[in-house]
Amino acid sequence: MLLAILRDPTNNQIVESNLKVVVPTDSIHQPLQSLALSGIAFALGPTLGLTLSMSLIVLTGLPIWRRALLTLIQERRLNVDFLDGLALTIAVFRQQSRTAALMTFMIHLGDVVRERTARQSRGHIRHLLEFHSVMARRISEDGTITMVTAESLSADHTVLIIAGDLAPADGIVISGIAAVDQRHITGESIPATCRPGDVVFAGSSIVEGSITITVTEAGADTVAAKIIDLVESAPVGETRIQNYAEQFADHLVAPILGVNVALLMATGNVDRFMSLAIVDYGTGIRVAAPTSILASMTKAAREGILIKSGRHIENLAALQGMAFDKTGTLTTGRLAVLDIKTFTSNISADQVLRLAAAAESELRHPVAKALVSHARKTLGLDLPICDNIEFVIGFGVAAKVSGHDLHIGSERYLRQLGISTKKSQAYLANLERLGHIGLLVALDGTLVGAIACSDEVRPEASEIMQGLRSRGIKDLVMVSGDREGVARRIAQSVGIQKVFSEVLPHEKADIIRDLRMANGPFAMVGDGVNDSPALAQADVGISLVDGADIARTAADVVLMKEGLHLLLPAIDISRDALKLVRQNYSIIAGANTLALALAIPTGLISPSACTLLSNGSALLATMNAMRPLLPNMNSISSSASFVNS
């Protein structure tokens, strides 16, 4: 059960290459085989007989001895591997098969856990941006259109992009007009209207219309590809929590061995020498920390939280601050109707909504989706049939309903049609101040109403901010590429006071770096391609399940259920994991220190008793480490009595 999450080859997204690879093997199969064989020798030793059991132990002990010798010869130092090898050698020569089998089993268990966690690299992300694999409509000099791969494009090529396409390269619009969704690059929640002279980024989605572009950058030179380079070059540190105790144990090897040899020369007591050689902080430590972390990662995964390594659990537990993207993170990324205003007494707000939704019902623009969704949810009625629907990109919609002329769009659009908008000016000015979108509705040339839309704030966002503050994470920040008014309104509505707005992707990364230096461990929560450099720069990058592929890859933690609900459980699980690791260190250090205290001055403890204390503490710590996998284990502290006993 413990290793199931590691053995599943589909779980590639939860592992990464920032762990130190301790066992220099080419495949996971060798330590797995050693683990299995040593487990058989331990469990079935009496049944197999001494000869076969010891043969299995020697076979599985070869990697341990080899590692100890390599460290001794190549690095010219003693470490915990040397003590492991020495203790195993003594156990083999004394034909203590159960003791030797248990030692090899626990050593290989630690190796398997660490190596499997380290096998996957976060560097292989270039295939995740969809535009690399799309087909492009390249226009030749004679006007013919040829379907080619995006990878084959180069500067100065001419490409046609229609509704539903992804832009295959960066380029400048030379003809046409289109609504372009560039939120993963710019962070804007509303599709931009692109006309001749405007820039389009690779990976952007064409929502409505069609455009022809001249390619300026393709492939690795696009903005999206450069974002990937920023992600790959971000600094990645080692996992301290899984290495610190092991280094501590390594530093104890030489003193313990020196005392052991001195006592042997002074007393000639071989049993005392064996006892001290068997006392081994490293065997338990080698397993206890990674097993505790892995069990906590497994618990988190069961709750829908993918934490990619132990380093990120450690950093989550130590967070001092957290930064949030706006669009798609603090908001749903979907527009919602906030208000409907009427400017005439003979048409109600419901009628204004019904007319607008009918005209927009055939369109895919986010505003259209918001109007139709709100109308059907609020009114519960079928929409009237509209004829001659015409979408004027960047302005609005014209249609006929029951013989009447209907226009929905911006103030500028209605003015161009000669329709007076004087009644709406104060209302629109207030919407602009609040960062909302205002749509005007005119019937037969007369302004009849206005509809306010805005990006919908996640309902749980404010509660999450309160929960973070109650956990001591008080420095909460918004970092957004959107306009200042929009960003500040959303931030204030959820309880965030500090706002960075209108920032580009690389500027987001710079802001996160500065926040880390000023405040300590800092997290970044985002969902777009434009958030990826900041996610990589943060101590902990957190992405949502519906975010861009590159954001989920750059992130250290992925919340696999929609929304921010899992953010607080991720922190709680991480903090409980560190409590569990400290408990396990206490178990191992306490038992082995007791064995040393009894063996060094008096020799009152036998080799068998040392084996029981040393390996028993490792086994107890391993069992304790797996407690997060037990049912109803919601808090480590709730069962502290288990450790105390």
Automatic annotation (TrEMBL):
Kindly state which reaction or reactions the protein catalyses.
Zn(2+)(in) + ATP + H2O = Zn(2+)(out) + ADP + phosphate + H(+)
Tell me which InterPro entries the record gives: ATPase_P-typ_cyto_dom_N, ATPase_P-typ_P_site, ATPase_P-typ_transduc_dom_A_sf, ATPase_P-type_domA, Cation_Transport_ATPase_IB, HAD-like_sf, HAD_sf, P-typ_ATPase_IB
Protein keywords:
ATP-binding, Cell membrane, Membrane, Metal-binding, Nucleotide-binding, Translocase, Transmembrane, Transmembrane helix
Q: Is Endoplasmic reticulum among the key words of this record? A: no
* Places the protein is found: Cell membrane; Membrane
Q: Which residues form the P-type ATPase A domain?
A: 134-232
The residue stretches assigned to a coiled coil in this entry are none
Q: Gene Ontology cellular component?
A: plasma membrane
Name the residues that span the membrane.
Answer: none
Main EC class the enzyme belongs to = translocase
Q: Does the keyword Coiled coil apply?
A: no
Q: Which Pfam families match?
A: E1-E2_ATPase, Hydrolase
Please state which protein family the record places this protein in.
Belongs to the cation transport ATPase (P-type) (TC 3.A.3) family. Type IB subfamily.
Q: Which PANTHER family match?
A: CADMIUM/ZINC-TRANSPORTING ATPASE HMA2-RELATED, CADMIUM_ZINC-TRANSPORTING ATPASE HMA4-RELATED
What is the protein's given name? P-type Zn(2+) transporter
Q: Which organism is it from?
A: Polynucleobacter asymbioticus
